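Structure in, sequence out. Go:
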């Protein structure tokens, strides 16, 4: 196949990108978006601060624009993110304890209900683990509402949208390490106790290369009976094209790796300013990394 989206479909996967609503008027951007990508994730527009700017008042305008343009172009939509300590609106940041817990659960219920039946996979909880090398939970105000906040979030999301795949999503979990093992143990526990979880997202914000045990890490999660997805892929540095090929081949080698999302289209669209970590240059031209991904998708 000659596009990322078609090549991925031939392998039973999706290939997606993060999308910013503010760029949808850029014709180069939308041409590449609709030609090359079969799935979209709102980069910011479905987050808590965007969708519930004041308590109980919901604003879906930008998220709905992204959804509508995806539906018009036959693309899947990943929802991102229902519960995250970052990009919480100011009113929620000022809450704590049971009041914050209730506000979080209401937020999840409202947003997942608004998008019910339209979202392929939701990042229900994002970045809840710390980078302390011990696999601790991140000490956020959400965590301070009680250690069971993650499972409460997943149960609320399942009740609101039973057809969406419900994912836990994090970064620095791309190889086998203390943080990814803590997430792994949480999935083991959730599966044992019947807490609804369907997938784990590996953000994969990488530099130079993928961890040597990248595929093995995906596989150990898949072996627990959850899907795995590469959710925010971008790679800076010297080994860029090779690392993109490695990640793509790893996903194809794991039958429960259902798709890959890159975190933006052109280097100039990336949150990693100056890192040039994406598949298209600022002019929208395909980079060596693009060819490496396409060839990997077409291989085998
Ligand atoms: O929309 C406002 C604009 O009105 C204002 O003038 C401008 C001034 O700074 O800010 C704009 O908001 C920015 C927003 O992106 C939209 O561009 C925020 O400041 C900025 O913080 C925000 O950054 C986003 C970041 O998440 C926030 O944590 C990035 O675009 C987005 O790529 C990034 O994505 C995260 C994933 O959600 C989770 N995983 C990590 C990943 C990278 O940080």
């Amino acid at each position: 196949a000659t596009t990322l989206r078609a090549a991925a479909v031939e392998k039973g996967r999706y290939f997606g990108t993060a999308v910013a609503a503010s760029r949808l008027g850029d014709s180069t951007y939308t041409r590449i978006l609709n030609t090359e990508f079969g799935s979209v994730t709102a980069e910011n527009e479905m987050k808590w601060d965007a969708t519930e700017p004041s308590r109980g008042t919901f604003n879906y305008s930008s998220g709905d624009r992204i959804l509508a343009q995806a539906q018009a172009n036959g693309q899947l939509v990943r929802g991102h993110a229902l519960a995250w300590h970052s990009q919480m609106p100011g009113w929620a940041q000022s809450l704590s304890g049971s009041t914050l817990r209730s506000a979080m659960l209401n937020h999840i219920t409202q947003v997942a209900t608004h998008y019910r039946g339209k979202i392929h996979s939701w990042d229900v909880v994002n970045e809840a683990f710390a980078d302390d090398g011990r696999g601790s939970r991140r000490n956020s105000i959400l965590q301070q509402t009680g250690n069971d906040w993650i499972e409460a979030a997943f149960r609320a999301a399942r009740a609101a949208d039973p057809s969406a795949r419900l994912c836990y999503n994090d970064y620095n979990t791309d190889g086998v390490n203390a943080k990814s093992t803590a997430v792994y143990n949480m999935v083991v526990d959730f599966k044992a106790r019947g807490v609804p979880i369907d997938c784990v997202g590996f953000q994969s914000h990488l530099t130079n290369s993928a961890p040597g045990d990248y595929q093995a890490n995906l596989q150990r999660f898949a072996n627990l009976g959850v899907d795995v997805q590469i959710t925010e892929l971008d790679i800076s540095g010297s080994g860029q094209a090779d690392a993109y090929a490695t990640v793509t081949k790893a996903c194809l080698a794991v039958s429960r790796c259902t798709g890959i999302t890159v975190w933006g289209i052109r280097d100039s669209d990336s949150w990693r300013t100056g890192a040039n970590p994406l598949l298209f240059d600022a002019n929208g031209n395909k980079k060596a990394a693009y060819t490496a991904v396409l060839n990997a998708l077409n291989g085998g």
